[in-house]
What we know:
By secondary structure, the chain is of the alpha+beta class. Helices cover 36% and strands 16% of the residues. Pfam families: MsrA_helical (PF20939), PMSR (PF01625).
Amino acid sequence: MKPPTNVTPLHDVDIPTKKATFGMGCFWSNDSLFGATLGVVRTRVGYSGGTTKNPRYRSLGDHTEVIELDYDPKTISYEELLDMFWANHEYGLTTKLKRQYQSMILYHNEEQRAAAEASHKQMQVSCNGQLRTEIAPAGQFYPAEDYHQKYRLQGHKDLCRSIGLDSSKLQTSHLAARLNGYLVGVGGKTQFEQEVVRLGLTEKQAEYVRRELERNEGGGLAC
């Protein structure tokens, strides 16, 4: 079904959400992975897990690159998000890394803590006791600089302009989260076609995304 030409980009989705925060290596890839996941409403990347005040990319101190998600628990569960977390670390689960790329689950409530610890226990068996993932309460989240937000999408400057994407929407736009995944092949063509009208893309915009999705699908998400 072709989308109409007189449409409004779906930047804002006003539904109840819960928050999840994960460190999985380079946060560009995670932003694309979760952004195109059904049930994830918004994504933003940043720094957390440490004590250094006001970290920046070139001076993280003891913080880690993380992704913070707003998700709809009626569509996707925290346990399903944990499954994605364990399955998609760029640098592996047992590799010793500098603090910037630490494997990390930052929980927002006791329910998340219990689920994280239970899944960690299972993974520790699979990893022969070599698992390096940390579990800790979520503290202050410091958003990364604008150029890190929706990094893959921002490489398509004409598309960004055409949907009215500016710095104020980089961390809040539902459409931006989706496109940041679809453009690198995440989510798949079937899901995209099911969503395209709802997302408010014009026929020209949708065809551009469709071509990029088909070209990149299955290509991996390495930063």
